[in-house]
Amino acid sequence: MGRIIAGVAGGLALKSVPGDATRPTTDRVKEALFSRLETYGVLDGGRVLDLYAGSGALGVEAASRGARAAVLVEQAPKAVAACQANAGLVNRKLGRDAVAVRRGSVDAFLEAEAATGRGWDLVLMDPPYPLGEAALAQTLARLVPVLDAGAVVVLERSTRSPEPAWPAGVVRFAERKYGETTLWFAEPVEPGP
């Protein structure tokens, strides 16, 4: 069972997704990730998307550490149920509705968000390892229109996976490896002439 590491809801036990359909981010990777994100200044008061959320552990961690709002996007019914339970726990602990859950495909969510004109400060992506590189590239392209200037995108993949094909409008600025897990960090850039 996972837990929230730090912040207002630090130590809170989280509901995990039953079965082995998801791959939870380890506490070691989560701690390193959030320490880095705090130095980037995207957590405090930021708007956070947790795509392919699984149990929602990353999104609720962001809310516990000061994000203004976090949206957990997940399609699998058991994972959605875990996200809803964890969002409820954190919202009660925070005393406000900081975390919301959206059931559906990530691509459909991003297409709908692009039409709203709203931007996001932090996007956490932990797609299933079987998701192919071409499908991931399409999702990353759909992500570009919903990023605020100064946003950070974090993509978690297997260390055996190749570097993602970053679309125009986004550039990788860091990569960190933790055993079997690689975190890719990217940010939006203005298109060149």
Automatic annotation (TrEMBL):
Instruction: Give the EC number(s) listed in the UniProt record.
Output: 2.1.1.171
Q: Which InterPro entries match?
A: RNA_MeTrfase_RsmD, SAM-dependent_MTases_sf
Sorted alphabetically, which keywords does the UniProt record give? Methyltransferase, Transferase
Presence of the UniProt keyword Plastid in the record = no
State the CDD domains in the record.
Answer: AdoMet_MTases
Give one Pfam family: Cons_hypoth95
Question: Which enzyme type, at the first EC level?
Answer: transferase
What Gene3D superfamilies does the record tag this protein with?
Answer: Vaccinia Virus protein VP39
Q: Under the GO molecular function aspect, what terms does this record hold?
A: 16S rRNA (guanine(966)-N(2))-methyltransferase activity
PANTHER family documented for this protein? METHYLTRANSFERASE
Name the UniProt record assigns to this protein: 16S rRNA (Guanine(966)-N(2))-methyltransferase RsmD
Which species is this UniProt entry from? Answer: Arthrobacter halodurans
Q: Source taxonomy lineage?
A: Bacteria, Bacillati, Actinomycetota, Actinomycetes, Micrococcales
